[in-house]
Amino acid sequence: MESSGTTRRQATRQKLYEAAVTLIAEQGFSATTVDEIAERAGVAKGTVYYNFKSKTELFEELLRHGVGLLTASLRAAAEESEERGGTRVEALDAMIRAGLAFIDRYPAFTQLYVAELWRTNRAWQSTLLVVRQEAVAVVEDVLREAVRSGELSEEIDIPLTAAALVGMVLVAALDWQAFQPERSIDEVHSALSLLLHGRVSGH
């Protein structure tokens, strides 16, 4: 059982994450100050430093937290699909939908994550690579099982295919939100599902 102190601390951290992610998405990391983060979160500046040693540590933890939520939702989607007796490809399909739902719920975090992924020489680059690998590994596991069960060809390159699937979902979802917001999650999921099933070539 978690103590009320732990729960309160988690709630405070959640507020700080939300404040930081929106501010950094709006104006960039270096332009965002700890004062602004505290103000946006509705807490005292000292509270930020009580929870995180620095703005960099806050951002690093934010990346871990966000990608951790994404990884958990991908894993849950695959497990639910398996419990229903679905195939591995159906599990991948469920993961695509879970990824889209996550991005729909946390658009600012996703924009930030994608932007940071391609920057180098950042203090948190190694953290980013670790958390990215955790998310991609969930997809790799399901692909590996799909090859083992004969659902997918043994010719597929598992690490690259997993990275491509995650990348496809991230970029398609950001495009959906920025340029085609009138579309429903079902439409976006259907389009990506056709790609997954290899039906785009007209066979």
Automatic annotation (TrEMBL):
Keyword Nuclease among UniProt keywords: no
DNA-binding keyword on record: yes
Stretches of the chain forming a coiled coil according to its record: none
DNA-binding positions: 33-52
InterPro entries: Homeodomain-like_sf (IPR009057), HTH-type_TetR-like_transc_reg (IPR050109), HTH_TetR (IPR001647), KstR2_TetR_C (IPR041490), Tet_transcr_reg_TetR-rel_C_sf (IPR036271)
HTH tetR-type domain segment(s): 10-70
Pfam families: TetR_C_24, TetR_N
Identification of the protein by name: TetR/AcrR family transcriptional regulator
